[in-house]
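tokens incoming
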């Protein structure tokens, strides 16, 4: 298995610290608002990575944090006049709900910043003791970047490229412009008592402390893979790595992976989405699996241009999988190993090459339909196709829905109730051999743009 290491800027064979095991840490959301499409893209990338690692027989430990205390959260608390717990729990629940709708697996470990305060304070104290951090007269604590001779090796930057960070953390008490806050003193609001001062931790300290608490092992590297969006490479990941390096005398991660940005093409976004960047709004108009398929359809390292025309085209591509699944509906799935499954894992194990993977998927569907058109009773292709679709569910997270219910998305509850009643009446008419009424009800359903299919497992319907 190979992955692209953002630090070396090359694809490398994945060789874990401990044979047969893989540790992964991904930066999670700051829970002061609803999840947007960028959150979804990043979560999907690393969900796919976990699935591929497991398919390659690695025992995976996956951690993703929840930032539930920072300046944006405190500001939102004040605006809404609610408690920290009420605000952050609301948006944590919303994040989980949206990610669940996309079929994203929950992490094995999901630490919250507010529950990791002891770890952060311990890390800051260690850095002060070792001379890599200093306290200011006003109670702030800063990391001394000049004391780390490997600072900027993660992002490959040079000192005169740090204008952005200097402007963000401008403070006349800092020794160097590039120094960043580990602890900020506050006279009021949400704050925690420490030997430094009453205040709150800096954002960059959170993940480093959590990794040390939950995942780090002894040796050259603390964990195997650290991931997140491309915007986190600098300064966030650079600063995480510096803190851990100076506190523990080891590198934070052996491999660094970063996904690209999500851009919105507003001119092509329809009114149904309201040009919203929020995932919850997209989920009102499209099934979560459709969004999963679309957001996963381009390579993770490239930027993703979200527009509804492409989304609709992507849906039609996923529809083909469900058409095949419907064609084989009711058959028992067997564990049939196929060349398709082997090839799919091989291409995805090459730095998550999703483009080649989806091309193989298209070919599998086309071949299965071609064989079944020629010989509808071909048992071998039926067994292989069902096994292939089960493998796709496991590896890619697509095709998990009942194929008939998948095509019912977007039908309001009143119409669903009406359709169910009509089908019930039709079933009764057929039982009583009243075929005239039965046919009339079918015509009424067709007039509603609904098609039905009678199977051994009952009658199913879908929107045409």
């Amino acid at each position: 298995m190979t992955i692209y290491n953002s630090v070396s800027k090359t694809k490398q064979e994945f060789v874990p610290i401990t044979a047969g095991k893989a540790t992964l840490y991904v930066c999670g959301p700051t829970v002061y608002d609803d999840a947007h499409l960028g959150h979804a893209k990043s979560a999907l990338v690393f969900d796919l990575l976990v699935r591929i690692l497991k398919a390659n027989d690695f025992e995976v430990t996956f951690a993703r944090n929840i930032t539930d205390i920072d300046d944006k959260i405190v500001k939102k608390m004040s605006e809404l006049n609610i408690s920290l717990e009420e605000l952050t729990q609301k948006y944590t629940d919303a994040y989980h709900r949206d990610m669940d709708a996309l079929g994203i697996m929950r992490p094995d470990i999901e630490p919250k910043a507010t529950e990791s305060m002891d770890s952060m304070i311990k890390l800051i104290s260690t850095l002060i003791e070792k001379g890599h951090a200093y306290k200011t007269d006003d109670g702030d604590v800063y990391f001394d970047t000049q004391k780390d001779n490997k600072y900027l090796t993660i992002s490959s930057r040079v000192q005169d490229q740090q204008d952005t960070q200097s402007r963000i953390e401008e403070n006349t008490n800092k020794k160097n412009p590039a120094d960043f806050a580990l602890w900020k003193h506050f006279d009021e609001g949400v704050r925690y008592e420490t030997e430094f001062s009453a205040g709150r931790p800096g954002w960059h300290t959170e993940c480093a402390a959590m990794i040390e608490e939950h995942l780090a092992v002894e040796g050259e590297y603390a964990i195997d893979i650290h991931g997140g969006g491309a915007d986190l490479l600098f300064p966030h990941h650079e600063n995480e790595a510096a803190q851990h390096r100076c506190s523990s005398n080891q590198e934070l991660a052996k491999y660094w992976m970063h996904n690209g940005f999500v851009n919105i093409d507003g001119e092509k976004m329809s009114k149904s989405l309201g040009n919203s960047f929020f995932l919850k709004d997209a989920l009102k108009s499209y099934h979560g699996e459709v969004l999963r398929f679309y957001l996963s359809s381009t390579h993770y390292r490239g930027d993703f241009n979200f527009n509804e025309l492409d989304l609709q085209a992507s849906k039609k591509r996923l529809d083909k999988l469900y058409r095949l699944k419907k064609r084989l509906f009711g058959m028992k799935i067997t564990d049939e190993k196929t060349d398709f499954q082997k090839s799919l894992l091989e291409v995805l194990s090459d730095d998550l090459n999703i483009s080649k993977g989806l091309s193989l998927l298209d070919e599998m569907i086309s071949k299965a339909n071609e064989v079944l058109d020629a010989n509808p009773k071909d048992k071998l292709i039926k067994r292989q196709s069902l096994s292939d679709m089960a493998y796709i569910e496991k590896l890619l997270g697509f095709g998990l829905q009942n194929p008939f219910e998948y095509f019912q998305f977007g039908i309001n509850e009143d119409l669903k109730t009406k359709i169910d009643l009509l089908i019930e009446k039709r079933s009764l008419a057929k039982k009583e051999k009243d075929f005239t009424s039965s046919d009339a009800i079918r015509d009424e359903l067709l007039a509603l743009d609904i098609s039905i299919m009678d199977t051994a497992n009952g009658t199913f319907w879908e929107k045409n």
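note: The chain has three domains: 2-260, 263-406, 413-463.
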